[in-house]
């Protein structure tokens, strides 16, 4: 079995696994690694098919979660951003004994809008899938621009995300399409209702991909979880507000260490 790319940094007593979002790779976390590596042993992962984890075809959410879990420490804090939040959540459902706490960042248990549930309109996701076959680099860049829109540092944040993408080989159109399929079809709302693992949800108030309306809804559905909204952040709060993000992460986990 091929290994996915995995790097360990830091010497903290607590293991912390960081999972990136769609189209990207572990380089997106570079801005917060120095602040976290004194307290945690960090595990930086390129999801299967992304970045340095090439040689993988498109996977389902369950397949991706199982593949990541196969190389993971026995017990860790799992932090997942956007698509990575779905992967981390699936891991918490598959192997709760391996997850000391779960932190999702600008993520949703159901990214696709439906009925009374706010999210990304299915035709928008379908449009991205269609455009991938025509010019997937431009499609990824458009998606990155959406993630930082509205913040005071939007241009700088988008440049940082783009740099993370362009610094490594681009994922194949098939892998990117598979990731969009996960965003379009997965729904973990009911499955996560009974999750006993300590659970923190972090959001950006200006996020155009994960509407802030879902926060109060999930507070009610998942009273066992905690939520925090960064008022001036969009879809990548750890890039636009790294200090506030690291404080929130440390405080949540210090409480449990």
TrEMBL record:
InterPro entries (UniProt xref): AB_hydrolase_1 (IPR000073), AB_hydrolase_fold (IPR029058), BioH (IPR010076), Carboxylesterase_BioH (IPR050228)
Key words of the record: Biotin biosynthesis, Cytoplasm, Hydrolase, Serine esterase
Major subcellular site: cytoplasm
Binding site for substrate: 22, 82-83, 143-147, 235
Record bears the keyword S-adenosyl-L-methionine: no
EC number: 3.1.1.85
Enzyme class: hydrolase
Cytoplasm is among the record's keywords: yes
Swiss-Prot/TrEMBL catalytic activity: 6-carboxyhexanoyl-[ACP] methyl ester + H2O = 6-carboxyhexanoyl-[ACP] + methanol + H(+)
Transmembrane stretches, start-end: none
Subcellular location: Cytoplasm
Enzyme active site: 82, 207, 235
Pfam family, one: Abhydrolase_1
Pathway: Cofactor biosynthesis; biotin biosynthesis
Domain AB hydrolase-1, residue spans: 15-242
HAMAP family per record: Carboxylester
Similarity-based family: Belongs to the AB hydrolase superfamily. Carboxylesterase BioH family.
Function: The physiological role of BioH is to remove the methyl group introduced by BioC when the pimeloyl moiety is complete. It allows to synthesize pimeloyl-ACP via the fatty acid synthetic pathway through the hydrolysis of the ester bonds of pimeloyl-ACP esters.
Subunit structure: Monomer.
UniProt protein name: Pimeloyl-[acyl-carrier protein] methyl ester esterase
């Amino acid at each position: 079995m091929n290994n996915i790319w995995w790097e360990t940094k830091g010497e903290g007593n607590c293991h912390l696994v960081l999972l990136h979002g769609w189209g990207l790779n572990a380089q997106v976390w570079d801005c917060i690694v120095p602040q976290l590596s004194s307290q945690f042993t960090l595990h930086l992962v390129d999801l299967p098919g992304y970045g340095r984890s090439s040689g993988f075809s498109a996977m389902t959410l369950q397949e991706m979660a199982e593949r990541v879990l196969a190389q993971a420490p026995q017990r860790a804090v799992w932090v997942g951003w956007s698509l990575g939040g779905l992967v981390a959540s699936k891991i918490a459902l598959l192997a709760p004994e391996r997850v000391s706490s779960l932190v999702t960042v600008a993520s949703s248990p159901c990214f696709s809008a439906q009925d009374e549930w706010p999210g990304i309109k299915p035709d928008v996701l379908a449009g991205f899938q269609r455009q991938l076959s025509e010019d997937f680099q431009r499609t990824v860049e458009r998606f990155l621009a959406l993630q930082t829109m509205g913040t005071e540092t939007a241009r700088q944040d988008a440049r940082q995300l783009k740099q993370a993408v362009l610094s490594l080989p681009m994922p194949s159109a098939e892998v990117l399409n598979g990731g969009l399929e996960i965003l379009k079809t997965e729904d973990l709302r009911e499955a996560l209702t009974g999750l006993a693992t300590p659970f923190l949800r972090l959001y950006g108030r200006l996020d155009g991909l994960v509407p802030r309306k879902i926060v109060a809804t999930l507070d009610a559905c998942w009273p066992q979880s905690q939520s925090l909204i960064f008022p001036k952040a969009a879809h990548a709060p750890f890039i636009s507000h790294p200090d506030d993000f690291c404080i929130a992460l440390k405080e949540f986990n210090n409480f449990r260490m």
